[in-house]
Amino acid sequence: MSALPTPVRAPEGAPSAADVHRTLERCRALVAPALRDAVAGTHPWVGEMAAYSFGWCEVGGAPSRSSGGKGVRQALAVLGAEASGAPGGAAVRGAVAVELVHAFSLLHDDIMDGDESRRRRPTVWKAYGTGPAVLAGDALFALAVETLADAGAPAMRLLSRALRDLVHGQADDLLFASRPWTGPERVRLREYRTMAEHKTGALLGCAVALGAALGGAPPATVAALDRAGRHLGVAFQAVDDVLGIWGDPAVTGKPVHGDLRERKKTFPVLAALDSPAAGRLSALLESSAAPSEIADLIDRAGGRTATLAEARHQAAAARAALDTVPLAPGPAAELRSLLDFVIRREQ
Ligand code: GRG
């Protein structure tokens, strides 16, 4: 079995992980009360499932010490407003909306994929049943829309575009499962990038653009931040794919080689299928070969290296998009640190 990956080494003088955690915690503290208020507005049973999905409680409602998600999207929204010269508070409803949509999409995604654990706990459908979990997802979606209902048409348009793109990305991802590994019908890397931009990038772009829009930024700034977030999303997905094969389960909270066990068509696999090892690899993927053997071949064929290069390339494109508009220097630096964090993360 291959060694665990060092995703992307931090450049000299780069902000420390502690700096980024401080940013994430600062933004979480700013958004948390409004997020809890929004969830409190739904049916109590459904609200418990939503609270469970955020890591706030256990099944039955007792308080939880679970860490919940990283909160990248809410931080992007807050920094989007601050980078546009507004106080972070201006972005709070946008941050709440994107966290609600994120939680909703994970909840429904876990049902579609049949995944039984997330963030080291049983998924909502596993803990409460599929029907209730579908309803909890619907409630989170409805709460997101309600949260932004009075925020004006541009904000609503950003959210609805992200929702449309999310559905596109998810649909393409689901359809990839039935495509062959090789031949003219195989999934190309450029199709995968588009899928990832929609499935993962649209909401990250929406988060930072929504923050800017709510902070009164001009349309060019909103558009540039949206572009940056979308590139960041593809980088994020690439790193997610590496972690889904080589990540340390104790850190990721996901099963070892999970993506290979499920024979998912992720970036490292598709990149390796573009190499001379394609024939051997597709034969292994179609056999009952152990995931560790497949992971080794993908690695030797350059799949891991190509995916990490993709993450760096997309992060550079995100940085370039940020450079096209004037931004407040402090928050812009925090945004750049978050970019580095996303490609260096191990969970
Ligand atoms: C919009 C109607 C409508 C449907 C949505 C289910 C669905 C369709 C889309 C799913 C999109 C999806 C699951 C994207 C995954 C993106 C991703 C890599 C999530 C992981 O995000 P992290 O690591 O999660 O930020 P944490 O746990 O840290 O919050």
Written account of the structure:
- This protein has 16 helices and two strands.
- The protein has a two-stranded antiparallel sheet.
- The radius of gyration is 20 Å and the shape is globular.
- Helix 1 (17-40) crosses helix 3 (72-83).
- The chain has one domain (17-341): Orthogonal Bundle (Farnesyl Diphosphate Synthase).
- Residues 1-10 have low confidence and may be disordered.
- The protein is mostly helical and 347 residues long.
- The structure holds geranylgeranyl diphosphate.
- Residues 69-70, 72, 105-106, 108-109, 119, 163, 166-167, 170, 199-200, 237, 240 line the site of geranylgeranyl diphosphate.
- Geranylgeranyl diphosphate binds next to helix 4, helix 7, helix 8 and helix 9.
- Belongs to the FPP/GGPP synthase family.
- This is Polyprenyl synthetase family protein.
- Keywords: Transferase.
